[in-house]
Amino acid sequence: MLSFSAFCSTTAWADGRLDKIKQSGVLVLGHPESSVPFAYLDDKQTPVGYSVEICQGIGQHIQKTLGLPKLELRYNPTASATRIPLLANGTIDLECGNTTNNIERHKLVAFAPTTFVAEVVLMARKDGGVNVDDLASFRGKAITAQAGGQTFRLVSQLSAKNGYGITVIPTKDTAETFLMVESGRAAASAQDSGLAYASVASSRSPGDFVISKKGLEPAPYGIMEPKDDPAFKKVVDEAVVAMIKSGKVAALYQKYFMSPIPPKQINLNYPMSDILKRVLANPTDSGDPALYQ
Questions:
Q1: Half-sphere exposure of 197 toward its Cβ, with a 13 Å CA cutoff?
Q2: Cβ–Cβ contacts within 10 Å for residue 222, how many?
Q3: Amino acid 293: pLDDT
Q4: Which member of 24, 40, 180, 237 has the greatest number of CB atoms within 10 A?
Q5: What DSSP string runs through 61-78?
């Protein structure tokens, strides 16, 4: 759990990301390309989204902290299977997408304070003959989920535990995941709720699809940071907490979840949950699922 006492004003960094950024004048932001509304490409192929703008705010704070006259932001595409390796080998400095903060991942990476809380949901065609609120109705069928993601692991574990015999088909990104369901190659997708609502709203026939109201598991998101670099984490977390307390994060939520967004001007109409309101009132970087119930 974070507290404001952890964010003292002293600037002290050892050899690490801050030194590298100060010397190069560059901050590299990793991002998925089709995770609407968190990180995706607009009609000019520019990365935009809720998480991208939070990272841009972090960049402004890093520039100020390091006393740099200019800080260049570079963007590097990531996928579920590549985001952690690219962060670990130094290709990217932050991952700005929709990565679930869980205890297992803390062995490999760190997370900034939580800025979104999703639920893992099932999305299917209405004419698919399945009940998205009952995983047992998918017995012997195929469900698709992003390779290397938390949803892939969760559905595989629940199927094995309950003997459902569900085939979990891996995909590379959100767009391919939706296409698998739209084309009938999978009976459903397992996705975080924000991505599921965005995929359906962006489709040619939103009325053809149904999303479960009953979540399988909470999925808190945070900007992903490198592990074992406390000086860098301190500056990044300080920036995120400041954006939360100033209302900047709430304004970004209104912009990306409750208003028309480019390039298709879709509106997710996805009000902020009580859980997220509670988390933003008391910022935390914990991956303990009990805090998000």
A1: 18
A2: 25
A3: 83
A4: 40
A5: HHHHHHT-S--EEEEEE-
